[in-house]
Design brief:
The chain is α+β, with helices and mostly antiparallel strands. It has 13 helices and 24 strands. Strands 1, 2, 7, 8, 9, 10, 18 and 19 form an 8-stranded mixed beta sheet that branches. The longest helix is centred in the C-terminal third of the chain and has 23 residues. The chain starts with 8 loop residues before the first strand and ends in a 5-residue tail after the last helix.
Length: about 500
């Protein structure tokens, strides 16, 4: 193995230049950490990232995170592409999303139940592309000084009490920390000895681009049949679920035109003919999660930490949430500005969210199986989703409206994403978070709060002023990731604010 004496010792090496790795790199670099991203693929572009394969729905927490870092305005796809689930019939309700292929419609959603969403709030869901996200995040990362090396795959690593030496073939790199954002087959997770516990698959999923001789034989949209499911979103683009226990995916056999045609004919119960197969990949609903997200100086995020069926499109959002939660905590640890236990709170907070998403995925698979029991459950869920309360519940889960961390505290806002308060001068809190600092927001201009904030220097930005709608709140302490660490109504207990500030921030030095 060649040594690399000319390479610096980075604060963090990230394995994987997908959206999660790139977003984490941006968060760390924003906090003035030196970051190297190693990506095994030489070319960031892939046919599977092109429309419609690369379309992803961004949920509320993801949209808020991108907005809070000034990145949302750089995304263009959602401005020109309608939601692919939108019902094209004139006058029909718009399909806003689905659970196990069962649609819920925007007209049924009662947003008044979402108490803390203001008129100034960001959208609850948007359409983007993997390719677009990676382009925007790469540009931001490089602007912030992140080094990105493509065609350089992490093959192994060795950690000591102080450093991590990362190997890529005959090259080596050094850092203080290594984060695996390298996907479901993560080398970092495997080499790091992480346990990856969970459940085995029920089906093999297929994503294909094909030339079909007789596409009229297939029904448009999503079709659940007696033997599986197929979706023809656009002419020539077919997605299928074959409930074979994941056998074909696990076999690693080549995906041929003949095989795809056989599966499509069996699931659709037609004699449809495929003339040519251009792109094909398989996937499953295997649901696994690392039992810890940290081993010494090694951390996991995104699909490296948890995998599940892509049904509902929550995997990308879950991973970006990991990055937003981890970035500021790891940066504070590197700069020796972290209160005790801050980095451990990454796993404590994010692992339960992963558990919820994996169970959400399993529940969808359970009612999509081609058997009478699943069909009965499917019918009940469909009836529920057609009610106002049902549609509101399912949309809030799909869009992550009520994601919450158990931070203690007495105020109902504690642990939730901060509302996008609009100050009287027109400034909005989300726009004031572009620098990644914590914020103490004082609506009642209590001088004691400024005195406290001053003790923390640049770690806590003090903002004072009235807002157009305060939601009855007089002051809030906001973490760099936009989560409320403390809140108070008019009856303010400054000792509780001091405890919260001490828990998440250190005094200036």
């Amino acid at each position: 193995m060649k040594s690399a004496p000319n390479y610096p010792v980075y604060d963090v090496i990230i394995s994987g230049a997908g959206p999660v790795g790139l977003f984490l790199a941006c968060e760390l670099a924003l906090a003035k950490c030196s970051v190297l991203v190693l990506e095994k693929a030489e070319n960031p572009n892939s046919p599977l990232k092109q429309l419609p394969f690369g379309i992803r729905g961004l949920s509320a927490p993801t949209i808020e995170a991108l907005y809070r870092r000034g990145l949302l305005k750089e995304l263009e796809v959602h401005k020109r592409i309608k939601n692919p689930h939108q019902n094209a019939k004139q006058g029909a309700q718009r399909q806003a999303g689905h659970f196990a292929g069962i649609p819920f419609h925007d007209g049924n959603i009662d947003t008044s139940q979402w108490r803390y969403r203001l008129p100034s709030s960001t959208d609850t869901s948007l359409i983007s592309e993997i390719e677009e996200l990676e382009t925007v995040l790469t540009r931001r990362a490089e602007t912030l000084g992140v080094a990105i090396k493509r065609g350089v795959a992490v093959t192994n690593f060795h950690q000591t009490l102080d450093t991590v030496t990362v190997q890529s073939g005959d090259q080596s790199f050094q850092s203080k920390w290594l984060v695996g954002c390298d996907g479901s087959r993560s080398v970092v997770r495997k080499a790091g000895g992480f346990e990856f516990a969970g459940t085995e698959p029920e089906f093999t999923g297929y994503t294909t681009q094909v030339d079909i001789a007789d596409p009229e034989k297939l029904s448009p949209g999503r079709n659940v049949t007696a033997t599986g499911m197929y979706l023809q979103s656009q002419p020539g683009y077919v997605l299928m679920q074959d409930f074979d226990g994941g056998a074909f995916h696990n076999s690693e056999k080549p995906i041929t035109r003949e095989h795809v045609q056989e599966v499509l004919r069996r699931i659709s119960n037609t004699d449809v003919t495929i003339n040519a197969l251009h792109i094909a990949t398989t996937w499953t609903d295997r649901a696994r999660q690392a039992t810890t997200y940290r081993n010494g100086r090694i951390l996991l995020a995104g699909d490296a930490a948890h995998i599940h069926s892509p049904l509902g499109g929550q995997g990308l959002n879950l991973g970006l949430g990991d990055a937003m939660n981890l970035g500021w905590k790891l940066a504070a640890t590197i700069k020796e500005e972290a209160p005790e236990g801050l980095l451990d709170s990454y796993y404590i907070e994010r692992h339960p969210i992963g558990v919820q998403v994996l169970d959400w995925s399993r529940a969808q698979v359970a009612i999509m199986k081609p058997d009478p029991g699943a069909g009965a459950l499917n019918a009940i869920v469909r009836d529920l989703m057609n009610t106002r309360d049902g549609a509101t519940y399912f949309s809030s889960k799909v869009w992550g409206i009520f994601i919450h961390y158990d931070l203690g505290g007495n105020h109902p806002l504690t642990g939730y994403s901060v509302p996008n308060f609009e100050l009287e001068d027109g400034a909005r809190i989300g726009e004031l978070m572009n620098d990644g600092q914590g914020i103490l927001l004082n609506f009642n201009m209590n001088p004691a709060l400024k005195t406290l904030a001053d003790k923390y220097g640049k770690r806590i930005k003090y903002i004072s002023g009235d807002a157009k709608d305060k939601l009855g709140v007089s002051a809030v302490l906001i973490r760099p990731d936009g989560i409320i660490a403390w809140a108070a109504d008019n009856d303010m207990d400054c000792s509780e604010l001091q405890k919260a500030a001490t828990r998440w921030f250190t005094y200036k030095r």
